[in-house]
Every structure is written in C-alpha cells, then in structure tokens.
C-alpha cells in the first residue's frame, strides 16, 4: 500500500468492523480499539500509548475528554479530544472488566499492546471483514473526513478539525476525502 492513502470507511464498513470486534476473544477491548480510531481519530501508536489517567477525572471517573499527552502523540504534539458518547460508554464498560490503570489497551499477556500489535489487529480485522485497501489509519481518515463534513453543523471551521493533531491545516486537508455526489451537486449550482 506504499504511496496510497488508507481508504475511508463507509457507515456499513464501520458497522462491519464493530461486528467483527464483537466476535473476537476480547470484544470489550477491541470495541474500544475500533472506537478510538473511528470516534477520536487516534493513530495506532496513540491507541497503544493511551493510559487511563489520560481519560479520567481527578475523582477517577471517565471524563469527557482525552488528554493525549505529548509522550503518547506523534511528534510529541499532545492534544485534547472530546469523548464521543459511544466511545465514552465503551471505555466505562471496558474499565469495569479491565485493571483500570496503566494502559487502556492491554495485550493478552497483560502489558500494553505495542503500536505494531494494534496495526496487526486492524489488518486482521479488515482481512476478516473483506475490506480491501484499509489499514489502521482508515479509522483516522474516516474520523477526519466525517468531522470536516459535519463541522459547519457545529458552527466551526476546518481549523476545528485540527483536533486530529496536525500542526498544519494542509496536512489535515490531505486526509479529507471528497464526496463525488456533493461535487456534482455543487457544480450543478454554478
């Protein structure tokens, strides 16, 4: 897949990925893995490095934002990402079944999953669901594209989509997949 961007997931493909996670040996953990990608736009390495204290309040409850620290983020550019409700609920459920401290995503052996392990998990999931051309970055691209398409409804701009962690707006723009139907409607209005 060198030189190609990861594919954007349709709503059905995202549901298929969630259904796959439900059929695995660790459905609660894997649901969180998928949602961290699709609903928070985290990279595989950020998913692997996420710790409970980055999502907990001072009282130890699951908060409303991910405080992604510099040490966990690419190029040491930490950021705050609001927690989407499905992701927050999945984190609450997962914490009840997991140790609730240290890394959020643990391997079967108990330690943190490595970034490579997260990438491999996504590759297996996409292969199992028949989604060709997808990678661990597909959820991130899907998140950024959906955010860009919906940001006007929240009263924001493309600058607000930079919560994905890009220093440059041009980098964020490269992640956004155009919609050919919208482009056709736009041209018909001209």
TrEMBL record:
Alphabetically ordered keywords of this record: DNA integration, DNA recombination
Name the UniProt record assigns to this protein: Site-specific integrase
Organism: Bradyrhizobium zhengyangense
Annotated InterPro entries: DNA_brk_join_enz, Integrase-like_cat_sf, Integrase_catalytic, Tyrosine_recombinase_XerCD
Span of domain Tyr recombinase: 4-188
SUPFAM superfamilies: DNA breaking-rejoining enzymes
């Amino acid at each position: 897949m060198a030189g190609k961007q990861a594919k954007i997931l349709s709503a059905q493909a995202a549901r298929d990925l969630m259904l796959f996670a439900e059929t695995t040996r660790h459905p609660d953990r894997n649901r969180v893995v998928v949602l961290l990608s699709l609903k928070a736009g985290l990279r595989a390495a950020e998913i692997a490095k996420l710790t409970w204290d980055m999502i907990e309040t001072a009282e130890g409850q699951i908060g409303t934002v991910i405080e992604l620290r510099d040490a966990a983020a690419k190029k040491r550019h930490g950021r705050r990402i609001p927690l989407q409700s499905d992701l927050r609920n999945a984190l609450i459920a997962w914490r009840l079944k997991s140790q609730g401290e240290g890394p959020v995503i643990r391997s079967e052996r108990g330690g943190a999953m490595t970034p490579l392990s997260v990438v491999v998990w996504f590759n297996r999931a996409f292969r199992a669901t028949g989604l060709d051309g997808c990678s661990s970055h597909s959820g991130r691209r899907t998140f950024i594209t959906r955010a860009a398409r919906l940001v006007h409804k929240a009263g924001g701009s493309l600058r607000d989509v930079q919560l994905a962690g890009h220093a440059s707006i041009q980098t964020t723009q490269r992640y956004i997949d155009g919609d050919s139907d919208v482009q056709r409607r736009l041209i018909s209005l001209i």
